[in-house]
Amino acid sequence: MSSDNTRMNLPLWVSVSVFVLTVVVVHLLYQGLIRPAAEAAIAAHGAGATANVWVILKDAEQQACITLAIFCLILMAYKYYRIVSKEEPVFTFDYLQTFAKDKPLVVDEALAYLEQGESATNSSVATWINCLRRYKNTQNVQHAADAIRDSVESLAAQLEAGNAMIRFFIWAIPSIGFVGTVRGIGSALAKAEEAVAGDIAGMVDKLGVAFNSTLVSLLLSIVLMYVLFHLNNRQDEMVLKTKNNCETHLLTHLHK
Fold first, then answer.
1. Where's the MotA/TolQ/ExbB proton channel domain (predicted)?
2. What are the structural domain ranges in the chain?
């Protein structure tokens, strides 16, 4: 079983393709809808358009934050799909129930049976395979039980490592928002002379960049952290149920 399957990550080339596609789609959305709508709102209401949703979203920092947020949601949706469709349906399944029925378990035959087809990409099956390999080499049930523990710990570490990119982007989104805040405040200070002369439109627009970028980035971070929290819970449940599945069913065959 490849580590990518265990971690339930998209392959690298797929991740890059999805990221590029997300960048393009969001850019087209901004060029075709959000920025024209924001310009129309500003033209119609002037400084009073600062609360308009299109005006809040119109700047480059918000575009970058939304792009990263959508990409993170796609990555988490894929992981969630793998858990629900590939892992959870077999948490309580005895893979060798039919194979070893009414006859002693032959480890070599059991390994060949489990390794065939795509079933070996399932985390539970992979743990069974590791356990049987350890038992084949040692002929000791306790060593096989240790293999279950080691495999489950490795699975938990791989799942955690697989979320590293998502955690980085969730950290990066508020940082991009703060970059927009600094840029907006700096640009607003450059408009101070015009504001003193009575033209406050330029300063209001730049201050809008400062506050809106922070607002959007923090809201997106809250949503993403909430989704990641639930994904982590499902992954933790997956690890525990994988361990229980092996201890409940696999060790039963080895004790016969």
1. 135-241
2. 10-255
